[in-house]
Design brief:
Length: 162
C-alpha cells in the first residue's frame, strides 16, 4: 500500500481501517506516536487510539501505557479500502466504511453479546461499529478481547516486547 494509506507498523498485529485520515499526516508519517496523533487532532482521534489500545494491548489493564509507549509498533491505521497483506488481523470500523470494501467476502459471525460486532476467525477479520465509546463500551471491548484471546491473539509474548 502507498505509505500515506497506512500509518504505523509495516507488519502490524492488527490494522484498523478507517474512512478518513488524521490531520498532520505528513508529520505523523515522519514521527508517529499516539501522543503526536492525539496532540495534532481532535478528541475524536484520542477515542479511536484509546479503543485501539484497549483491544490490542497484551495486558488489558495496561492499555494506557501500551498506547503511549508501543501502540504503533504493533498496529497500523489504514485508510484505503483494501486489506493489507502484511497485517495479522484486520479491523474495519463502521458499516459505512465496510461498504467501501467492494468485493470483500467474509463469514463474520456476530458476537452473542453485541450483534453489532462480528468476527470472521478464518480471515482474521473484526467488524465493529465506528470506534467510539458509545458504541464500543468497555464491556463490548472485553468480549472482543476474550474472542481474540481464544484465537491466540495475545499469546506470543516475545512479539509484544518493545
Amino acid at each position: 500500500m502507498p505509505h500515506s494509506d497506512c500509518l504505523g507498523a509495516s507488519q502490524p498485529r492488527l490494522a484498523l481501517y478507517l474512512p478518513h485520515r488524521p490531520n498532520g499526516l505528513p508529520q505523523l508519517e515522519d514521527d508517529l506516536s499516539a501522543q503526536a496523533l492525539m496532540a495534532t487532532n481532535s478528541n475524536h482521534w484520542r477515542k479511536i487510539v484509546s479503543l485501539l489500545a484497549k483491544i490490542v494491548s497484551p495486558t488489558a489493564d495496561d492499555w494506557r501505557q501500551f498506547r503511549d509507549d508501543r501502540l504503533f509498533q504493533h498496529t497500523s491505521l489504514c485508510f484505503a479500502p483494501a486489506l493489507s497483506n502484511c497485517a495479522d488481523w484486520h479491523w474495519i470500523g463502521g458499516k459505512d466504511n465496510l461498504r467501501r470494501f467492494e468485493g470483500l467476502i467474509h463469514q463474520a459471525q456476530p458476537l452473542t453479546v453485541s450483534a453489532s460486532v462480528a468476527i470472521d476467525f478464518n480471515q482474521r477479520l473484526l467488524l465493529t461499529p465506528y470506534p467510539d465509546y458509545r458504541q464500543l463500551s468497555n464491556e463490548v471491548v472485553g468480549h472482543i478481547r476474550a474472542a481474540l484471546d481464544r484465537q491466540g491473539f495475545y499469546d506470543d509474548t516475545a512479539r509484544w516486547q518493545p
